Structure formats: structure tokens, C-alpha cells
Amino acid sequence: MILTHPILLSLFLAGLGLVLALLASAAWLRLALRPVPKEEGAPDEAYLVFLLLLTAFGLRVLAWPLSYIALDSAVPHVAGAMCIYGVTRLVPLWANLLQGLRPLLLLALGGWIALRLTSSARERCTPGGTPRRPLAERVLLPLSLTLLVLDCLLEFAVLLSLRPGIPVYCCGSVYDLPDRFSALLPGSLFGAQHAHLLLPILHVCGLLCALVCLIAGVAALRGRWLTHPWRRLRTAASLLLLPLLLAFVAAASIAGMEVMAPRLTGLPFHHCLYCLLGKTAAGPWMAVSLAAAVLLSAWGALLLREGRGAVEGTNRSAGLLLVSGGLLVLIFLAVTAFGAHNGGGGGDLGRCSSCNARLYDTVYLVELVAGQGEKSLFCSVGCALEQIRGPGGKTAAWVTVRDEFTGKRLDSGAAFFVEAASEITGLPEGNRWHAYQYLENAHIMAFELDGNIVSDPFGASGKEDN
Fold first, then answer.
1. Would the CA dihedral through 155, 157, 163, 167 be positive or negative?
2. Reduced to 3 states, what is the DSSP secondary structure of residue 221?
3. What pTM, to 2 d.p., does this model score?
4. What pLDDT digit, counting tens, does each position of 107-156 carry?
5. Strands 409-411 and 375-378, how do they pair?
6. Residue 365: left if φ>0, alpha if ψ -120 to 50, beta else—which one?
7. CB of 57 within 8 A of CB of 16?
């Protein structure tokens, strides 16, 4: 069993959430089976259920990012794992169920809490203290209790099943294949150049969501939904927002894998969302703003749909949620645009020893160690070859290159090189070489780049051309 501080804290929160869920379930069942009128001075069990679930909701919100931190803390203990994805391969079914269940739990439980908070005084004072909201009490409450129990049990199952020393295949075996699922749909719709269209599509979907949220939110805050001409539009606005949010989440997921992950990690052929989340500075901000925007907008749409014209507080709360969700959508788009514009590698490493271009920690970086132990950095394979083969060139004791799929440093003699038909954009003229750790990846990229697998250009390996 792998036990780290984040894992122990996650287990504690899961246990506490499970206790709260069982107590709330028992109180709700007792209230449902014996709905007696509330006597003066007697405890209100409906409010007890509300307080228990409100506390559990706050704990599960904290547990959501903490669970990823816990899984990330286990990466060094799992053989073959380079990111969170590798750890989830130890228990793939339970880990996938947990990741899909958590947002559904927060959506359902948060929606019930929002409806409960905006109930009118008359609804809160009905016999038994239960609001007369069919969606809230007959659907969302039992669904939330069920999902809360399952969420806590699944977190226990995932974290307690982690075992060190078990070899796994990591994200490169799934997200870096040409037939990966994130490339099939946009590739079939928009062709081979679909990556250039994904960010514009994402921004169009995001702007539409933000526009609908802001318009509906401002109208709710100004009481427009209370007047007769606007009441018919309330349901249409709430129903329109839900498919827009689904399209926005789908576009964000595909663009994150196909565009943002390669740019922000500096790995042009790596499409792992887990690496985007755990190995970049903008990744967590993008995830938090996206989750918050979608949840707030969905809760606002729910209140807009369930609110009645006579309940002004419901419309005001829906307006606040929708405006907040729309602003968070704009923040997410801003973070995405900033990251896409400034992504592409690590910090400044000085200047190339051949062309004097500014160096960044990218997959094209080459390190040369001369016979006297002197180290030199180059922006590309072409610049390193020019330094070695040129007049007064250095004698290389060894040369290290980077695998374009994982960014791993490789001795040039252990790498497989592909000479592409076209030059690499952003590098000095004549640079056509790509380096890979595995021969299978080299064959795949030789086909995609219309190139050939060549022997080590630095002459360190002696591998024959393929």
C-alpha cells in the first residue's frame, strides 16, 4: 500500500464524508417515513439533513483537487508511471468511475442545496419542514445521497488499492497514438489540420455560453423574469444553456488534449490531460476555472428553470450564479489564450552555442559534452551538427537529445532519428531531424512527417538506416 500525506488526508475526508452521508440518509429516511408536523421547540430534521449535506458538500469540493494531488504523490512509487494516468492504471475501473462520479455528485448536491437555500418561507414551513419542490426532494436529494456514499466508497477503494512496484503503461501508450480518441472525431470532421480549428471552436462555444449566462443572469437580477412577456423565455434560456455547457466541456477537453497539452508541456506530440494538469503552471488554473464555471452556470440554469415568478429570491440567486458562471467562462478563455500564446517549454536556458538563438527547455534541445567535459547547449540537432562538423568543430564525447513524445533525455546512440520532408517551424533553416526513444514511434512519425528513419547523425550509435 502506498501511503503519503495527501493520500492519508484524502482517506480522512472520505471517511468523514461517508459518516455525514449515512447520518443524512438516516435522518432523511426517518423524515420521509414519518412526516409529522413540527412542534414548537422540537428539532427540525429537515434542517439537520440540510446542514449535514452542506458540510459534506464543502468537504467533497476540497476532496476533488486533493484526490489528484494524492494520486500525483504516488507517481514516484509506481514503476513506469510518469504522471497521474499511470497511477490510475493500477485500478483503472474504479479510478475512472470516481473521476466521472465526482462532478455529477457536486452538480446534483450543489443544485439541491441551491434550491433549498432559495425556498420561500412558506415552503420551509410546510408540515415536516420539507420544501415542496418535486425536483429537489424526489430526484436531487436521493440522487445526491446515493452519489455521496458511492463517491466516498470509491475513493477508499482507489487509494487503498495502490500498490508499489507494479509496472504499468503510462499516458504515452494511449494519448500519443495517431488513432487516439481525441483526434478521431475532430479529424473526421475537419481533416488532418483539425488542431488549428480547435481553439477557435472552443472560444466560440465559450463566448456563446458566457453570453447566454450574462444575459440571463442580468435579466434575473433586474427582475425581468417576473414580468409576463419574459416568463416564457425563462424555460427556453435554461434549456438552451445546458447543451451549450455540454458542448463547451467537450470542446475544452478535446482542445486541451490536442492543442493545450502539447504547447504547455513543450512536447509537440504528447496529448495527456494529466500532464497538462500536473506539469504546467496554467493547467490547474484552467481546470479550476472550467469546473467552477460549469457548475455555477448549471446551478443557475436549474434555479432559473425551477424558480417561480413569485419567489424573487430564487431569481436573484439564479442571476448571481449565472453572472458568476459567465465571468468564469471568460476567465477560462483568457487563461487558455494566454497559455496557448506563451506555452512551449521551460524557462530561459541562455543562448544556442551555434546560432546564438535564445534557448528554452523544449524537446529540440541538444546537449553536447566535449572530450574535456565542456558542456554546450544547442537549440536543435542541425545547430549541434554544424558546430561539430564545421571548421574547428568540437569533438563530442557524447550527445543527448530529447524524445519528442515524453521529453526524456536520451543518448543519441540510443535514440531513433527521423529526417522529415519539411523543416521544423521555429528552428533555424535546415533542421529536419526528430528524435524518439522507441522504434515504433519513429515509424509512426516517419509516415506522418513524410520522412525516413536515419542512423544517428552524430555517429554515436552505428544503427543502420531502416
1. negative
2. helix
3. 0.76
4. 999 999 988 887 644 444 444 444 445 566 678 889 999 999 999 999 99
5. unpaired
6. beta
7. no
